[in-house]
TrEMBL record, chain A:
Keyword Disulfide bond listed: no
Pfam family, one: Ribosomal_S16
InterPro entries: Ribosomal_bS16, Ribosomal_bS16_dom_sf
Primary location class: mitochondrion
Example of a GO cellular component annotation carried by this entry: mitochondrial small ribosomal subunit
An MF annotation (GO) of this entry: structural constituent of ribosome
Disordered, as annotated region: 105-135
Protein name per UniProt: Small ribosomal subunit protein bS16m
From TrEMBL, chain B:
GO terms under cellular component: mitochondrial small ribosomal subunit
Superkingdom, natural source: Eukaryota
Taxonomy of the source species: Eukaryota, Metazoa, Chordata, Craniata, Vertebrata
Pfam families: MRP-S22
Protein name: RT22 protein
Length: 135, 298
């Protein structure tokens, strides 16, 4: 049975405006659109306005291209829109907002994790090498 | 010592009128058929008055086609760091380029910043700026990555085919007037034309003025002068020398011309004696011209 009324006219009850990434593209080829939408909408569903885009794969010049419509972004932030965490991190990288604290924390955690990954590789390597020459 | 008056610029009215006169107005060349989709020819039956009216309108259109593209100095490279965050070092593998997509800002004032993998947030270079603006605000006739025939090695092949005008038109479509590549391609084209004396390729196109300005600023006017005298374009030769005197007022022929208020052939003779390197050739050409004038009038 069909629902009465058109699917296109479906509205959201409640919810607030968020600025977040909507994923598009094809298999193994993501592409993000920076979008102002109602928080209750589907991730890739109907949005209020597109505010930019981000291509996560580097191009021929080794750059990740991102476009941001700062004028409209300022308007939506003035209207009281919230940002998703990846959107906040991206704007921090761009310099529009200050650097996100989780970016800094992640940057500090990364070398520690790399070190920890290298030590277990070294330890089992030692452990497997020792019994060889040992007995 | 200091110059008495500021040096004349490319955009001065006097300079522009001289260059425009020298460019000539060959309607057959300006409205030469451009490669388009095939259409059967269109014939019209007109009276004399209508034909004159049509020619007048064609001349007006040709004047708009012959407007000279700007000649500017090379732009200063951008080298501005907005922020340095050493903490971000090692987190990313590629750089991020952020472009401001607000519609109502002129392209020159747009914010385009680059976040490097080492955490430095800097303004984008001119090449990066041009590429990003072409990606998000595409302009017709311009490609994101400039075609390969603009490289120095490949320009030679194009010039051998005598396609200077096409290359220069594509260069105007592709690059900004003050970018390094625009100036480099134009200078290469002018040098090649001057080396092989192919001045007629650019006559009656909008590039002729720029070429004359380039040659006169570098005092390489001899070949052009010979070409003009051989084609019996004496007024063009005199306007060339007037332009030379406007740009280099301290040279000897300029002073003599100002004292004597010389006109026409005398001006050319004074110029040839004092300034040119290829005196012999120009004297020969002048002699041939005068003989031709004598035989035609007699």
């Amino acid at each position: 049975a069909f629902s009465a009324g058109s699917r296109l006219l479906r509205t959201c009850r409640g919810g607030h405006v968020v600025i977040r990434f909507a994923l598009g593209g094809c298999t193994n080829r993501p592409f993000f659109r920076i979008v102002a939408a109602n928080s209750r909408r589907a991730r890739d569903g109907k949005y209020l306005e597109q505010l930019g885009c981000l291509d996560p794969l580097p191009n021929a010049y080794g750059e990740k291209v991102a476009g941001l419509n700062l004028e409209r972004l300022r308007y939506w932030l003035g209207c009281g829109a919230q940002l998703s965490r990846p959107a906040e991190k991206l704007l921090g990288l761009a310099g529009f907002l200050p650097l996100h604290p989780m970016t800094v924390t992640g940057a500090e955690r990364l070398p520690r994790r790399r070190q920890r990954e290298q030590q277990p590789e070294a330890a089992p390597a030692d452990g497997s090498a020792e019994p060889g020459p040992g007995p | 010592g200091k110059a008495a008056q500021p040096k004349p610029a490319f955009t001065d009215e006097a300079v522009q009128t001289l260059l425009y006169k020298m460019t000539g107005l060959n309607l057959h060349k300006v409205f030469r058929p451009v490669k388009k989709a095939l259409k059967p020819p269109h014939y019209k039956l007109m009276t004399e008055a209508q034909l004159e009216e049509a020619t007048r309108k064609a001349i007006e259109e040709a004047k708009t086609k012959l407007i000279m593209p700007p000649v500017l100095n090379e732009r200063e490279p951008i080298d501005d760091v907005l922020a340095e965050d050493k903490v971000l070092e090692g987190t990313e593998s590629a750089k991020y380029v952020f472009t401001d997509l607000s519609y109502s800002i002129p392209h020159r004032e747009r914010f385009i910043v680059v976040r490097e993998p080492n955490g430095v947030l800097r303004k984008a270079t001119w090449e990066e700026r041009d590429r990003m603006i072409q990606i998000f605000f595409p302009k017709e006739g311009r490609r994101v990555i400039p075609p390969t025939f603009f490289k120095d090695e490949n320009l030679g092949t194009v010039f051998q085919q005598d396609r200077h005008e096409d290359v220069l038109n594509m260069c105007i479509a592709q690059f900004e007037p003050d970018s390094r590549d625009y100036i480099r391609v134009h200078h290469r084209a002018y040098e090649d034309i001057e080396k092989h004396a192919k001045y007629d390729l650019l006559r009656s196109t909008r590039h002729f003025g720029g070429m004359v300005w380039y040659l006169v600023s570098r005092k390489k006017t001899d070949g052009l002068l010979i070409d003009m005298i051989n084609r019996d374009l004496l007024e063009d030769a005199t306007s060339l020398i007037t332009l030379y005197h406007m740009l280099h007022p301290e040279c000897q022929s300029a002073k003599e011309a100002k004292e004597g208020k010389l006109q026409g052939v005398d001006l050319i003779k004074v110029f040839v004696k004092t300034e040119s390197q290829r005196e012999g050739y120009i004297q020969l050409a002048l002699q041939a011209y005068e003989e031709a004038m004598a035989t035609s009038s007699a």
